[in-house]
Each structure stands twice: as structure tokens, then as C-alpha cells.
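User: Show me a protein chain along with its predicted structure.
Assistant: Here is one chain, sequence first, then C-alpha cells.
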Amino acid sequence: MMLARVVAIDPKLKSYVTILHDDALQAAAAADKEIAAGKRRGPLHGIPIAIKDIFDTKGVRTTACSRVRDNYIPEQDCTVVRKFREAGAVILGKVTTHEFAFGFDSHPTKNPWNLVHIPSGSRRLGAAIAAGLCFAATGSDTGGSIRAPAAANGIVGIKPTYGRVSKAGVAVLSWSLDHAGPMARTVLDLAILLNIMAGQDPRHPHTKDMPVPDYVASLTGEIGGIRLGVPTNYFTDDVDPTVANAVAKAISELEPSE
């Protein structure tokens, strides 16, 4: 049904660059058989996700939306995609981006909440998730391409600490600033995705040799002892008053009660 939704809706949104129709159906059928046999791999088993087109996918074009890579077909998955396949995720396709993720206006992809608006960021995954064209997606953030689309499309995303998630097999924009991370509809979904994505990787020497916590178990709702930094200069300059008021209200709700 989600593939049918992609075919029906995405011509208006223009979020996918490659749809893996046959591969997705085969992966979904295999997942059904494994789950029915009691071989469930985890919470992502059989779940349809999308991949930003700068993440290498074995046997599938990874163009970075650049003509110089029109015919680039990787011989192996990037580490993040490999981990998702091992977790049983069903990859629906590759989502379009600015050329090598360098840009921010997201043309020609539309914002699903208002087609005259942009979905923001270099990536169009926010539009695909908000429109129900996938349940979650892999993305990258160099200057805001996880955080901005999450805000603009009413979903959630996280830019992990540098070195927490491998970037092996991900096209480079700025090696010292690029972060790979998840986007989804809920914070719980993000925690599930990050549990899978995080960890040291021999293919990426900047990943950290440290245990990966259970991010799902950490979602207790308790925020005692956490310090939140709020900028006092430039933070609300040239911001729509409605947005500024919403941010101020959110900050006040996080402040400790007297």
C-alpha cells in the first residue's frame, strides 16, 4: 500500500529520485516469511524506509543528484544501509537531494502541507515522511539538513554527536561537518533507528569506540539535571513572531518549576 501511495502522490511532491518497486516487494515478502516463522529481527523488521541518495546502495544508482554520478552503481552498501538491511528494513527507494547535498531551498520538491512552500534543507526526506511515503529515512546534516526539514514538515530528526554514526559510503560534502542521522514521525522511532545506526565502524576511523546506549530505554520523559543552552543574540532576529512565541513557550515549559 505504501508503494501505491508513493506512485499516486509523489508525482506532485517530487521527493523520490529512484523507486525500488520490485526490490521492496521482494524484501517485504521475505520479511513476512521470517516473521511468520518466528524469526523477527527487531522493531524495524519489514518497515518501509527511504534512503537519501548520497548513501551508497549496492546495485542501485546513487547519484547524489549530480549528472557526474548518473551511472554510479555502488558495489557495496554504505555501513548505515547495511545495518538497516540486517535489521530487516524494507528500502522503498532513494530520495532526491541538492547536488551532493549542497544547498537549502529543496527545489523542485514540495512541502506536503502546502505545495507552494519548500520542505527545507538539502534533503527531501522530510516531505516523504510527512506525506506518508515512508515511515522513516536516513539523512545527513552538514548545515541543518536534518533539523530544518524536521521543523518545516512537522516531523522529528536528530543530528547525532560527531563520530556516533558511520559515514562510510556516504558522499562527502564537508568531512568535518557532515553527520549521518535518522528522521521519522516520532521520537520513539528516532530512538529505534539510532539504536541501529550508531556504533564504531572500521570503515570510518572517526567513529567512536564506545558503547551504544539503548536510546529507547532512555525515553523516560525525565529531564531533571539536563542543561539547555539558549542563545541571547541573533536567535530571534528576523523571525516570524508566531515562531518566536512558540519557541519561547517551549523553553518556558522546560524550565524547572519553583
